[in-house]
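To: structure desk
From: M.T.
Subject: fold request, one chain
Message: Could you run this one when you get a chance? Sequence is below, nothing fancy, just the single chain.
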Amino acid sequence: MNIRIVQHHRFLFLILIAFLILGVTYSIVTPIFEAGDELWHYPFVQSLSTGHGLPVQDPNIETLWAQEGGQPPLYYVVSALATFWIDTRDLPDRLWRNPHARIGIPLDYGNKNMVVHTSAENFPWQNTTLAVHLIRFLSIIFSAITVVLTYFFALEIKNDKRLAALAAFLVAFNPMFIFISASVNNDNLATMLATLALLLLAQLVTRGATMQRFVMLGVVLGLGALTKISNTGLFVVAVCVFAHLLWQSIDRRRQTADGSDEGAVGSRWSVVITGSLVCGLLVIAIAFWWYVRNWLLYDDLLAFNVWVQIAGGRPAPVTLASLIGEFQGFRISFWGNFGGVNLIAPDFVYTALDAFTVLAIVGLIVGIVRRTLPHLLWLPTVWLVFISISLVRWTWLTMASQGRLIFPAIAAVAVLFAVGLDQLRFTFYGSRRLSLAHLSFVILIPFSFLSPFAIIAPPYALPSRFANDAKVSNPVHLTFDNRAELVGYDLPQISVAPSDELPITVYWRALDRIDEDFSVSIRLLDAEGKIIGRWDAFPGGGLYPTRVWEPGEVIQDNYRVPVSLEAHGPAVGSIQVGLYRRVPLQDLTARDPQGNLVTPTIARFKIDGQSNVQVVNPVDHNFGDQMALIGYTRQISSDSLLVKLDWRALASMTEDYTVFVHLIDAQGNTLTQNDSQPQHSKYPTSFWDKGEIVIDPHPLTIPRDLSPGQYRIEIGVYRASDGTRLGLSDGSSSIIIETINLP
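Reply: Done. Structure tokens follow.
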């Protein structure tokens, strides 16, 4: 390599080296088939590499490549040529799908993996794993070329190496671009060809219309259309450039007053016309066959009809308001939404990037007002506008609001950002001029370098395993069909608010080798037995299914179960944990250590909430400094008495106390009573928080043979374990709250 070229473009080479390091890092850290749509893109490649030809799409036939089989074939052909020599017959094993994967739901805990990963993916790579990684490296090369082309495209827009380096940096250090670049995805070749087409179009304007440039452009546009359908939008941009060149030729002819240069101008005009026709013919020769094939097979040049049937259309009619509502996902996935569109950075990162985007737009507006924008900036603008409109149209058909889908225009975005930020320059300490573009370094460098290790890798880490159950603090030892044992659990917190998440860790042990993939079910139930939270997963958050368990090992299985907004508190709920087979749907039978059939309820938890208490008859009776009776109401009917007690927790209690309500006569004889833990045993005192007020109803049945007269209502509290009553401050063990007359 010429050392002078390196020195002349040294910032570009530094950016390129950093990008290659990042690309390889992302490729290695991200497990195979966990990058975007890679689990569908690669089977297309494998089908070609094994000699099966181009897929014919049929919505009624399930295929490994799904909707991606309708993509133009160039990227897949190139990838197949690079890997045809590899034995990839193990592909079905590597596509061990996680049926509970939460694709596109980044805020859910666990179930991030789309497939199950085994030691077959470990280095040194072999078979399908090797093929995938080789294609990933090939994709990184395509994207590295995109970074270089962005730099030179920016130079054509404005001859400023500093600004060109900034544009290349914005591409190379976009974490989502790096992530997609390090995956099997036709976007990588499509983006490279689109950026090369933009560069050639710019050179037609800045360096002159020559037949050689038209020929090169025709080849690139044809290859681009044979790589991704969105690249056909470059035809519109090319027509705009051709029209611009023609207008320049006509304008120059008009400016030639004496006609002395008429021949030269006429020659340029003819070159534009001829070159445009040659360019169009080359595009047709290279790519038109694919679109004719689509028409013959699907009655649709673009094959959108069959694509939407396979991928799935919109579940509801689309409105402009609904599309605007999806913009949040769009902006996040432009900068970094990894995995199965379910791994994101903290909110403040995207907020900072939003501010960065707004500054770039403000800079462009300032440039328009000042008339300081480069004249040729209309070229990337036209391409970005067109591909954005195309994305909106596509999103109108199917759920596709992903910012990465405009990556074929990422060079245009980067150039516009760079120019906009460059307009916002200010004087630093009276001498040096700084640009707000430096903010991009502060945001994107740490984001891109930290993402593989802080965001991508952790969700794919296998769960902790132990040789024995010594670390299990709450043993339960429930067995399921004598195949697996629920050893115990940990409950880091015992209270949770509606719409929040309850963290729980369960510990499993395989009693023998398991040859099925059982799913874990966790159910949160309220006091009435209604399900208020549920979670289903393969064990280990989806990463460690029962088929790979080693007999005897204890597996730590962590969950965060969402609680329904409809859950009501304060109240106590219960946790049920089980195993089931998915096909046919069947729960495994749970047994306790004695072999008895049981419902696998392992623990209770508190549902937070507030009781609306209006004390009608205020009192103040302290029971053992644990709980105080602060009020009550009572309702009498012909055969029943309902006493509602208002309690205040004076401490955080560790025991479940029982409240008794007695109806006694003048001699102290108990005529009827109700003994129960608060709220009909649904809200035990061990779950009360200090200072909490609890309404506690106690219904009593009035004996039919009871004589008319005065009777007293007696209240007391005792330990359920031994019957010991909580004493009051005066030394008594119960109180009479009211004397009533019964007819």
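Reply (cont.): The chain has three domains: 3-454, 465-607, 617-742. Let me know if you need anything else for the meeting.
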